[in-house]
Amino acid sequence: MKTRFAHVSPLIFGLVLTGCGRAENTADTVQLAKADTASSPARITFSDLPVPPKPAVTPELIERGRHVYDQNCAACHGVEGDGKGDAAAFLLPKPRDFVKANYRLRSTPTGRLPTDVDLFRSVSLGMPGTPMPPWKHILDENDRWAVVEYIKTFSPRFANPEEDRTAVVALGAPPARTPAAVEEGRALFTKMACINCHGESGRGDGPSAASLVDDNNTRIRPRDFSKPGAFKSGYSTKDIVRSILTGFNGTPMIGYHGAIPETDAWKLAYYVETFAQPAAPQAIARQSQNFLDREPLGDPDVRIQLSERAWKFVPDVIRVKKGQVVEITFEPTDNGLGVGHGFAISSYDEDAFVNGAMVGAPKTVKFRASRAGKFTFYCATQCSTEKLHPLMNGTFIVEDDSAGQTASYE
Ligand code: HEC
Ligand code: HEC
Asked: Which residues contact 45 (CB under 8 A, 6 or more apart)?
């Protein structure tokens, strides 16, 4: 089991970067992603992603899938598909457990397995706002199909003929988006108790929000509707309607299919969309499926020089203030096993992420310290090298002056 893992190629870093990093210093990765966006100027979300026909499922295809999986996925999802890869300890949310097979991004009713097309789409687009990268930039269609077939082998449910994987939830016809329809959406948002979790503000701060956990018993936050870029299953009206009707298996977000008429789901979606910031149209386009183009941050408020010595960060405590634009330049004193060292902050991974910093070739990342609290920063190169860097971490403290003290997160 471990020998296979040792082959994980450095490719994974590029991938993680595409999904999570600002990637300022990774020209190759940026180009890859840009090339892809250039060919599809319109923002493609889950429901609209074109899916090529699935190749015939042969033993060779599964074997190909196993290879793709071991190279690209096992570090997070585990060689056995149980979500316990070596990098999992450092990730939030936790990687999906393919044995349990509670899939969130689906077109099928609550509790059901996803369709093959659903799986192809989630693997292709990733899950924005989480460490799950969009693989369409890296893996060709055949490899994506192969790996989809392979991850299905982790759960006996996929082979069970009694599992209905073909019935998809109908979304119905969209009602006109009139002020009255939006107003009805608002009323439904209260009536259906969405506010208990998502809050009156739509920011995910309802009275029940603090106590929610997922099937991993990990704390889970209701979606903050003011951040279109954080919608895991796609930010388009159609995708929001689908999420409301199908729900996210393994989370407190149940599906409302059968509980409300489809027109009500559309009205709720219209209302959900009103929470986006006024700058939304542009921001949405930028934040779509990759994180490469973000708000320009301007000059940093603090500049930090970070180094590494004998697998330890120097300094190992970084303190900043909430709201500050932080620039961290990381230069290690050795190149590890030849691929250098990385830097990422748990819970900030998608903003602050570098990989492959080498002696004489520092890497810089700039991001806004938007969340107060105490976070772990770690060597992102962990993913590749098994037990190499488990102790290479430090504490990133973001003080919130307005609150008069350091808030704690999670
Ligand atoms: C850097 C870590 C990482 C890597 C590498 C990674 N994943 Fe994930 N993946 C995650 C995380 C984390 C989640 C769960 C996110 C959540 O629950 O919000 C996830 C979720 C998923 C899901 C679940 C979608 C759903 O409907 O719930 C699928 C399918 C998936 N990954 C497939 C893959 C495949 C295939 C690969 C390799 C080609 C891969 N992942 C590589 C971290 C990773
Ligand atoms: C019991 C708490 C709870 C209730 C009630 C609830 N939600 Fe959610 N909702 C969640 C959680 C938790 C998530 C995030 C799941 C995740 O991140 O994997 C979520 C996610 C979502 C998403 C995001 C989908 C995406 O792509 O990321 C939408 C949209 C949504 N909820 C709408 C609603 C609407 C509309 C209602 C009422 C009809 C509702 N929710 C009721 C807890 C709840």
From this structure: 125, 234, 235, 236, 238, 239, 288, 289
Kindly give the distance from the C-alpha atom of residue 123 to the centroid of ligand 1, in angstroms, as a whole number.
7
- List pLDDT tens digits, range 288-347: 333 444 567 888 999 999 998 877 899 999 999 999 999 999 998 877 666 678 888 877
- Rounded CA separation 197/319 (Å): 32
Ligand 2 within 6 A of 270 CB?
no
Whether 197 lines ligand 1, by a CB cut-off of 6 Å, is no
**Rg over CA atoms, the chain:** 21
State how far the alpha carbon of 220 is from the alpha carbons of 137, 204, 296, 313, in Å. Answer: 28, 10, 29, 30
d(CA 74, CA 150): 12
Report how far ligand 1's centroid is from the alpha carbon of 373 (Å): 26
Domains by residue range for the chain, with CATH = 2-159 (1.10.760.10), 179-287 (1.10.760.10), 302-403 (2.60.40.420)
Which of ligand 2's atoms lies nearest the C-alpha of 252?
Answer: 1
Average pLDDT (83-111) is 95
Q: What's the gap in Å between 131 CA and the centre of ligand 1?
A: 7
Q: Is 33 in the pocket of ligand 2 (CB under 6 A)?
A: no
Task: Flag whether pLDDT at 380 surpasses 90.
Answer: no
192 CB near ligand 2 (under 6 Å): yes
Ligand 1 near 81 CB (within 6 A): no
Residue-wise pLDDT for 110-145, tens only, equals 999 999 999 999 999 999 989 999 999 899 999 999
Residue closest by Cα to atom 39 of ligand 2:
194
Beta partners for residue 394, in sequence order? 377
Segment 378-382 mean pLDDT? 70
| Stretch among 108-122, 146-160, 362-376 having the lowest mean pLDDT | 362-376
